[in-house]
Amino acid sequence: MHQFYGSFEREKDLQNSISREIGLKIYHNLAFDQNAAFCSCDEYTALCLGNIYNLEQLKKKYDLPGHNACQIIHDLFILKGDAWSTLADGEFVVIMQNGNELNVWRDRTGAGPQVYYSSGFFSSHLYHLLRLLDASPQIDNESLMTFLGIGYIPSPSTSLKGIMKLPAGSMLKYQNNSLKIESFYHFDTFINNAGTYNGTIEEATQMYKQLHEDSIKDRLGSSQNVGVLLSGGYDSGGNLWALRQAYYGKITAISIGFKDNPWTEVPLAKKLAKDFEADFLSYEINGKELDDIPLIIRQLGDPFQEGGLMVNDLTMKLAKDLHFDVILGGDGNDQMFGTSIKELAMHWKLQRAGLSWLQKILNNAGSNPFFNKNVQAFRLNFHNRKILKIIESDCFGFHLQQAARICNLLHSPKNYSYCQNYPHHYDSFDELYYARNFLIDIEQVINEVIVFKASKLADFYGNHLSFPYLSNDLYNFLLTLPRTYKAKGTVDELAKGKGIAKFIHKNYLKNELPPYITNRKKQGGFAPLPLFFKNTERRQVLKLIIRNSRFYKDFANQSLIESFFIEYDQRASNESLWFWYRQTLAFKYFNLLVIAIWWEIHIEQHQGKSLSDFL
Description:
Blueprint: E1 2-3, H1 9-21, E2 25-26, E3 36-41, E4 44-52, H2 55-61, H3 69-80, E5 90-98, E6 101-106, E7 116-117, E8 121-123, H4 126-130, H5 141-150, E9 164-165, E10 170-175, E11 178-183, H6 187-193, H7 201-220, E12 225-229, H8 234-246, E13 250-258, H9 266-275, E14 279-285, H10 293-300, H11 309-320, E15 326-328, H12 333-337, H13 341-352, H14 356-365, H15 370-373, H16 375-388, H17 400-406, H18 429-460, E16 465-466, H19 472-478, H20 483-486, E17 487-488, H21 491-495, E18 500-501, H22 503-509, H23 515-518, H24 536-548, H25 550-555, H26 558-571, H27 579-603
Parallel strand pairs: 2-8, 12-13, 12-15, 13-14, 15-16
Antiparallel strand pairs: 1-4, 3-4, 4-5, 5-6, 6-10, 7-8, 7-9, 10-11, 17-18
Helix pairs in contact: 2-3, 5-17, 5-27, 7-8, 7-19, 7-22, 10-27, 11-18, 14-16, 24-27, 26-27
């Protein structure tokens, strides 16, 4: 494993060279909270940020002469060209400059530093990039509308006009005063390779097991103090089991629960940690942790909110003082195998039966306020939209029309811009499954949500977090598997909820993990967001913060926000209402709070660090 170390002062050499030769301004602390290596190789100057786990293997495989990380990367680039990064397994950003040419690569999942850029600037943090601009930034209304719906803004768009962010698995190239983006992971390539594996289920299971163990070993390196993010499920439990096959040193398992939540997984996680001789550390969220949200918003850049946001923040805060060499997370494994399989099968069956028109009528009717106030109508519309819009990210916030009205858009778009060019026709259910797996599970949920959130918060607290299930070898292997190896069952069985998700993963671990894990029905792992808005006095404070913001005063439709406040107060105390009804209400509240504070921090340059600073 190569971790990149070096003096950040050396980075100023690259900064000065880029400014002189290319005319770009780079924020001087691009490597903030990252390991870094700097070198000059032939005509290239290189800066490497993050972690790459297989450089030694690549050096040996291709007989590369380099002696350190930067030199090996340079040699690999000379040998393989721009696509060298597809061979590197890790969390990284690499910058290379040669005269007036500048190349910036991000790793496949975007776990390395973020890259914001414009025609004249680039930086790893939006907060810092905005301080380089000569003029005030212009808000992108449609991007904020997208955030209010799905909780994030998909790359390459950002919240601001003229500023972009480099997608995961891509390269940014400045050359001859022009800018070019190249992606190395394409839908057509994924579809063409999907399902081409010819081995048996048992052979696939053994291969998967070996690749997972290898991924753990690569990330382990010479570590002597290892952290594991632990719940009561197969994914984190699988990491703990595989780690113990190769490592007998100190392990600390960290688990987060919620106060008064009957579905908490902390007791199971504690029991699992004990069985594998790991120390155990847990924390129970009570809602007051929301006070840290300004620090999180400053770190994440674009407006961002997801159900597990505070879980990740508290986990990384707990880990900070334990000084782990590496922390292993189970993030992304559900998505690697494909999610929402039941809804996907129902979508296929309804479409084949010619009933999509009926779904669309119900979906259009769902914009009526009745569907937000009547719980049963809401539930019907919630499930219908989930099935109808299966090739979209989940919209747990304001629906498209609602969000457009809050952002005062004159015309509400029919679809989010990120998915407007997705295919509309599939020849088989398996093709539909693979399409969603790539377009939504991988490109959106893994790259833009799960890994982005977890890795950026790990950086904030100075932790080295890695995701063994997202290794390059596992990615390349899993995409070739037949659909039934990943989601076992016929279309009818899947539509009835009788299929088996993550089949070879469970096949691999069913005899390795204890029965109280393998025989347990999956609970879903959803963070109960209403907990953060349960206290009436706290809601009054949050309302005041939102109302005091320039977002509310100068940009938003105030009457719609006030109507939402009334609706929430009327229903917030009724805990007997359907979980997802209350959850989506809290999701909307969270989104409004985030965007209000985001506006103050990034647009108004507010220096506050806690909620009380924004009153």
